[in-house]
User: What shape does this take?
Amino acid sequence: MSRSNVTTPVGVAVATGALFALGLLISGMADPAKVIGFLDLGGGAWDPTLAFVMGGAILVHAPLARLIRARRAPLLGRRFHEPPRSRVDRRIVVGAAIFGIGWGLSGYCPGPALVGAAALATPALAFVGAMLVGIAAARYLTR
Amino acid sequence: MTFTSAWHGALGGALIGLAASIALLSHGRIAGISGTLGRAIERDDDGGFGFRIAFLAGMIAVGFLAYLASPAAIGAPAAGTPLLVVAGLLVGFGTTLANGCTSGHGVCGLSRGSSRSLVAVGTFMATAAITVAIARAVTA
Assistant: This one.
């Protein structure tokens, strides 16, 4: 592969990750207190911001993804990589339930945790380390 | 919440949706963070390793630059290290079992109209809200 054949896809991927993180920061979702403010329905000062974030993301992504999937192939790859599973089964319910407990305890889901850990606060770094262990454990047990 | 908070939320969300669209258009990949991380650490042999590392590096770089520019741009952790270790284990384990998190199911899956993602989002929103309610009762 020539040099430009490598640098273009890598550059686009870095920029895409950067844009994703910028969206998290602007939306306030890198702040665990705002996430917990959304999940805290009985707190008296409910913060609906997270609903605006998901709404904004879906309003943009749903129509674009439809247009993009109508193409034969992506611009820099051979094919579209579809999600691995399609059935609603017990595994997804159990997994999502466990994830929700951890999310509620911390205010961190994986994206904001990565961005938060970049500020090098020990609890955020510890969260990311433990999250990687949890991912590896689940991958090992379900392989 | 103020009007500014809602507006910033929608704008930031739109950027997240745009980033997910670019990942799909350029590399044909779903911008789900838990799956991207999991396949990166497992070195999943599907030709996506370079994309994953580059995407994650872009995320972390922006987080670090934001921190350098204004430490307050990134909110402080909401709990101490021991509790966050437990939470991290649960988040990593749960998102891997469920094949996705807030981005993979919440943004990409719901955008596709996936019933599987709808079930996942409803479930993790419910257990998260219950967890916060219990934590509030315990610490009150």
Remarks:
- The radius of gyration of chain B is 17 Å.
- Chain B touches chain A through 113 residues (CB under 8 Å).
- Chain B has six helices and no strands.
- Chain B has a mean pLDDT of 94.
